[in-house]
Structures are given as C-alpha cells and as structure tokens.
Prior knowledge:
The protein is of the alpha+beta class.
Amino acid sequence: MTDITEFKVNDQKLYLSPVMDLYNGEIIAFQTGRRPVFSLVKHMLTSAFDRLKPGDRPLLHSDQGWHYRHPNYRRMMVEKEYCAACPGKEIVWTMPP
Length: 97
C-alpha cells in the first residue's frame, strides 16, 4: 500500500511517500521531500524495486491520485511486473489477476 502524506514541521510542509507491506506492517521503502512531486514516488518505488527477489510479483494498492496515474509510474510498474490493485481510477478488482 502506498500514498503520500503531508506533515507540518516547524511551519514548513514535509511529504512522506512510503510503501507498506500489509501482511506485517513493514515499511518496505520510503522517500521524503518538501514538495509532492512525482520524483518523490519515483525514488520510493526504485528503493522498493531494489528489495524484490527474482519471481516476486507484489500487489501494490494506491489511492490512484495523479502520482499513481502518471505515465512514468505506469511504465515503472510494467517494467517490474508489479500488479496494481486498481488498474484505473474507480476500477477495483476483487481478486488480483
């Protein structure tokens, strides 16, 4: 599961982009930044991909905000054979493919 969360720290905004394993609550990878830009998600995904073992095909769920509909996000998902829990905005599978 992934999303971007905004925190206010010392009158400034800080953004956290983690990916969590819902099986055990482990944070697999995360990235922080001062702006909610696509590179925040890109760097988090790159860190998560580095932890994959050959043959792993994790299911990744997001809220389908613009970061997760970005063409580069979709390209990264296809290249690493991630399975998106929601293939498009407002489309939900009851079972992964």
